[in-house]
Structures are given as C-alpha cells and as structure tokens.
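Check the record.
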Amino acid sequence: MDAAVKRWSDSGETRIPYWVYTDEGVYQSELERIWYGPHWLYAGLEAEVPEVGSYRTTTLGERPVIVVRSADDRVSVLENRCRHRGVQLCQARFGKEESLTCPYHQWSYALDGTLQGIPFKRGIDGKGGMPPDFNPKDHGLRRLRVEVVNGVVWATFSDRTPPFREYIGEKLWGYYERIFSGRGLRVIGYNRQLVPSNWKLIVENFKDTYHAALLHAFFARFGLFRPDQKTAIEIDETGRHACVMSIAPPRDPNATATNDVTAALPGFDASLQLEDRRLVEAVKELRGEETIGGTTVFPSVMFLQQINSMQVRQFIPKGPGQFELVWTHFGFEDDDEDMQKRRIRHANLFGPGGLVSSEDSEVVAMAQNGFSKSAEGSATIMEMGGREVIKSEDNQVTESAIRGMYHYYREVMGL
C-alpha cells in the first residue's frame, strides 16, 4: 500500500503507528523518498580508500555501491552493477584495482566509472559487435554526488540534496567537527550484525536517552551514562538529526556509587566489580568536557565517542523487518601505541557482543515482533519529556529527539 494513503493518528508524533515499522508499501516509499531522495548517506571513511584504485563496497538503501579512490584528490561512489547486464562488478568488501571489470562479459570501466572497453565491440570479421552509433561515453557506471567532509565520505542519489554542512545544520556542525576535525583517521576494525527489526527502530534507539541506564546495566553501574549526569540533547532545525552529549564525573568504577537515582534503577547492582579498571579509564583528547558524544545523521549513520572509543554505526535497510548494522571502530593517524591499545580495549564495550551494546539489537527485535502481531490501529506512546517536537533538552528522561525525527519523517513521506 502507498504510504500516502495511510492515516496517521491526530495525536501526531506522540503516537507512532505500528504500520510504520511493518508495512511493505511504506518501506518501498521510504526507499524512494528518503534513501534515494535528497539526503546525504554515509558511504565510508576516506582512510578506507587510501590509494588510487583502493575501494570498499557498501550498500546505500538497498543499492550496492563502490567507494573508490579514483584519483589522488578524488573519491568516487559508483553503483556496483555493470551497465550491460546488471552484474555486480566488485564482490569483495575491500580491494585494489586498476580498473573495474565485469566478470560476465568483461566490460571494463575506469575508476571514475567511465566505460573504457568492450570485448568484440567491432565484432569478428565484420560480423556482430555493437551498433556503429553506440557511444561508450553514454554508458558509464552511475555516479553518485559525493562530498568528502573532514575524512568522511558522503553520497547522495539526488541532485536536490543541499551541501553537507547546510544539510546537517550549523547547530550540529560543531558536534560533527568535534570528532571529525580534519585530523587523519585510522581504522581499527569492524563488526557486522543482521538485526530482525525495522531500520527506524535503531535510529530511534540512538536518539533515546531514556532507555540507556535502564537497559544497559553496565552503563549505570560504572557511571558511563546515567540520568544524574549533566546531559544535553541538541536537535537540528528540521528535527531529522540529533546529538546527545553527557559528562560523567570522575569516580572510582569499583566504588558503590549509590544514590537516589541509582536506587530507582531496577537493574542497578552495586555488587558488580571490574577486574580490569582500564576498561573504563579514559584519556581526555577532544574539545570540551563531554565524556560521551553521539551524533545521528538521518537516515543512515550514527557517530559515537564514548570514553576513548570512536565508532561509526551504519544502518542498511533490508526490508521492513530487517536491517544490517555495520560498526567501524577508528582512531587517529597520530595515535601512539598506548592509545591504539586503549581504543581496542574500549571497543570491546561495543559491537554485537559488547558489554553495553548487545542489548540494543535484542530489544529492537523484541519490539518488531510485538508490532507484527498487534491489532490494526496500534501505536507507540512517545510522550516522555512532553509532547513538543524539535525541542533540545538538558536531561536524559525524554523522547524529544524521536518526536523530532518523526516530525521530519511525516513531511518527507506525506503522512
């Protein structure tokens, strides 16, 4: 069913209808209006394609693409399908090539996507071959618009997408630049997981400060993110992007650390201890006092700094009830050996088996299961922190960033 014929409740963004997460027609509309519409999509880090010819493959929306260093000063993003018969050109996640060649009929493309060679183009002995008026210049790989912004590669399928800095907005630009200042990046490693839930649920999750200390027992017990800490939630003017910042006071991670707030947390267990305190010990390295900073750039990615762990979390939709979550753990080119080891140690807090992240993928799958089995007209209740949308906050007990996202979502989707 077309998303435009669906009826949203008069309660607005305080009630999110379950069909938003389950309806195939709504999902197909999302692909066209959001993923292939005027939005910047995360395509990778420039550090992943350091030399001419080096590439990574990824998926934007449901379309496979190649992110390739096509010249010393250029990164290109190309659809990963031969123009001849649609065969995927690059199968590996990473590689290095002098050109891109189709395995089926060996059509060959330059690194910028230009069609440069067709076997038997003139036929054999005057027989067969391509028509005389066939022009290779008209049949290169589809090129996406690209901006490389402080080491991050962004791509869009639309000519209407505004420049990236305008797209993210000045309010959130400073948070983006706090991590991506232009300092050289270095990839540490990756995690990947396939999650049986709608892609929007994980975007909500990363905008949802309310759940953090309730769902993640490790966060609360060892003071990484707790409701009694100084917190700021900034939302851009459209409501689609958001940044969560928090400041954890210095404390002994093995101290009891109980107070009125922790006493109200059902999962708080003061008896839990750390055998290795280095797991939560951090070195200050970024601008500001914040010990955690997470920026969600709608619709495809979240960037998170938690102690000395730096992460990219990329969302790849795979139907209304499934998405892939790709984690890229990174640091900086000038990290010394101690910092590299610290980042790897802190990275173990996150990812599919992380001490403070594995619960997220489990709980959104539970939500999806609940949505798919519920009666027509069911909706989530989204009133924590009030009913306002596009409202920045100075506390964690709020869902305003989620309401802001759905305010924008409804405009784009015509709902």
